[in-house]
Structure formats: C-alpha cells, structure tokens
Amino acid sequence: MKNSFRKKPLALLLEEMKGEHRLHRVLGPVALTSLGVGAIIGTGIFVLIGVAAHDKAGPAVTLSFALAGLACVFAALCYAEFASMAPVAGSAYTYAYATLGELFAWIIGWDLILEYAVASATVAHGWSHYFQDFIGIFGYHMPALLAKAPLDFDPATGLLSSTGSMFDLPAVVITCIVTVILVKGIRESAGFNTGMVIVKVAIVLLVIVLGAMYVKPENWQPFAPFGYSGFSIFGKTVFGQTGPAGAPVGVLAGAAMIFFAYIGFDSVSTHAEEARNPQRDVPIGLMVSLVICTVLYIAVAAVITGMVPYGNINIDAPVSDAFRQVGLGWAQFIISLGAITGITSVLLVMMLSQPRVFLAMARDGLLPKSFFGAIHEKFRTPWKSTILTGLFVAVLGALLPLRLLAELVNIGTLFAFVIVCAAVLIMRRTNPEAERPFRAPLVPFVPIAGIVTCLMLMFSLPAENWIRLVVWLAIGFCIYFFYGRHHSILRKHEG
What span, in angstroms and rounded, lies between the C-alpha atoms of 424 and 446? Predict the structure, then answer.
C-alpha cells in the first residue's frame, strides 16, 4: 500500500514538458476564455434549466445557479494555482499525482472518465431533443420507437418506467458522427472556437432580451415553491422539503442538479500546456468564463420561469418551447438551430477530452498502453480509446433518461473538485517552497470553502447517486490493484 501513495515529483512533470511531444503554446487569455465559455454554454443552459425549475426549485432556480457558480469559483481558484505551478496536460489527474499520490491520481482519473463519458451522453441526449424540436417546426417527427430512451425516471415515484421506445436514434447518430471526426483528427483554430462562442452567446442574449418582453411577474409566484434549502445526507433530508419519492427538493437540491451546467470550465485548465503565459492567462480564462456564464445562466433562468409557469416548462427543450408557448414560432426556430450548433460543439469537446484522460493514464502505465495509448499512424489520434468512448456514449445516450445521466455526472465532477481543493491545502503544507506564479487568495479559506460547498451539493443529490459512485469507484479499485499498480511507470522508475 505504501507504494500506492508514491507521488510524481513536480520536477519530473516539468521535465516531461521539454520533450518533442510537448504541445505548442499558442493560446492567449481571450482564446482560453472563449474555450471556457464555449465548453460551458450548451446542454446546461438549453436543457437542465427546465429539469431543475420543474422538479427541484421553481423560479428560485436563479439562486441555484448562483450557488453552483460560487462553488465553482472556489474550485477554479484552486485549479488556477495548480495550472500555474505545473502548466502541463492532465488537469486534476496530474495535480493529484503530484500532491496526493498515485492511488488518488487513479481515483481522480477514473472519476474524470465518469465525468466526461456520462457528460457526453447527457449532451447527446440534449442534442436529440433539440433536433427533434427543430424538425418538428417543419412538421417532421421521429418514429416513436426511435425518438427517446426506452426508460424514463419518474421523480414522483423514484422508479424507472418504460416509454415504449426502443432507443434514442438521434443521440446515437450524432455520437457516431463526432466519433468519426475525432478519430480522423480535427484542428480547431482559436478563431473558429471564438466564432462559435459569439454565435452561442448571441442566441443567449436574444433569449434574455426578447423573452424579457413576455415575462409575467405572477409566474414567479411562489418564488421558491420547494423551499430554499434541500440539504440531505445520503438521500435523507436534513433541512428542507422532500419530493414525492423522498428525494430532497429546494434551492440547494436544484444547485446540485444544475451544477452540470458549469462542468466545462475545468477544460480551461487542461489547456495550460498550450497557453502562452499560463501563470496569467489560465486564471483569467477560468474566472472570466465562469463569471460570464453565471450571469447569463441567472438571466436566462429568470426569463424562462417568468415566461412560463414552472410547472408547464418542457424539461426536454425548455428554452425553445417557452417561446413556442408564447406564440413566437420564429424565435423557436432560431433558438433550436442555435442550440443544436452549440450543443454539438460541447459534445465534441467532451468526447475529445475523454480519450486524453485515457492517454495520460496509459502513459503512466496505469492502463494498457497498447490499447489506450495507441496513436493512429496516419491521423495521430488515440483512435482506439476514441472509438471505445464513442460506443460507451452512444449506448448511454440511447438507453438512459436525462435525469439519471445529469445527476450521475454531477456527483463525479463535484468529487473531483473536492480533491483538487484538498490538494491545494496539502501542497501548501508539503511543498511551501514551490514556485506559485498564481496563488489562490485567502488560503485556507478558499479551498476549505470549496470543499464544504462541493460536499454540500454532493450530499444534496439523491442517495442512489452515491451508490452509483461507490460502484464505479469499486470497479476502478479492482482495475488499479490488479493491473495499474503493477505496471506503474513511476514504480519502475523508482525501482
């Protein structure tokens, strides 16, 4: 067990950057900010607003977005400190390896696999609903057997029910298309990404400005029909109300659900190795993208719940359907088209990140390098793990309902943030002399606040999410102890 807590020296991380395989430093603060905004704005704003408002918080979902954003700010400051110390690829996996040891690095890497893969399936699910909403404008409809997942989750009973469908065909198709693109390789310039962000932000601003004209203040009453709390421990409500199935409801429970809307911000830290001046540019990219998206999220949530009573919000395509309900069919067309474009780019970024986590772990010997570290001779992409990711995402997106996918992603991401915040505290104590071009302010308050707020949101998720997380981690432990620790490159390096 002692060998399982071996740490990867910071000097070794920096040495690895000097080889010919180091990524090119081409991204400035504007490009990094646009990457963050581009990765964040997608399914979270176009889909999960409806689920959280309808099932968890009502119009008070605006406060849920503010609370989730605050938790992300604490985590982002901790990410920024690590990114400036070790501006290499790998994000939280690399940070954990340097501070907490190999076993914790494995846990966080395994957790990131859960985050990116299930997030991709959730995004594919949201893409399918907006695609069907878009073609419905022209009178076309998917066959009922191929329009949705065969199972749905009823929050009133806490049980799964049959929808009568076989699988969600559009989710499978878009996943396959993105997988093919990623296997063949894709070069996205910073200018192209910035253009995509401009399109998405323009549509969000259209929603806010145009929708504000149709807001009826009486739709905000009662403002918090489910209460302002919703804190629970392993599914047992401690403060606040419980839903029909015993799950917590309220502002805090809503924040735990819509936390998914923010998970893209940590992608900025994965680009630290490509930043021209990571010590300055990565913190700027993290914080500015978070602030911009939080403000936009709160404004959109206020408008949508003001346009339509929260009980009438369509949980599958809440934004475009709200405009349909007030008679703005042309706006529904623009919003649906923009949502499809925006969600496609998010799906690509998520599925691009997943194989890179596999690749980093394979290079360290924790996964079979012949498969997960395999690079295509022509396309120079991790093609085997990309195809595996595509298959996994397609199956989840085709068969599982949106509510289950969103909550499963959230608990995994929150767990990753807790570890990063804890790692800052540990690194400050164990390596106080290490160079920190960017230092998280108000330490130990900021990392402790990050740990506390993320744990609160984790506890506010239904109990079955903890069961799923434990099962996933148990599978990971089996792989690590039977394979990873015996093939660790660091273990062989240290003799």
Answer: 10
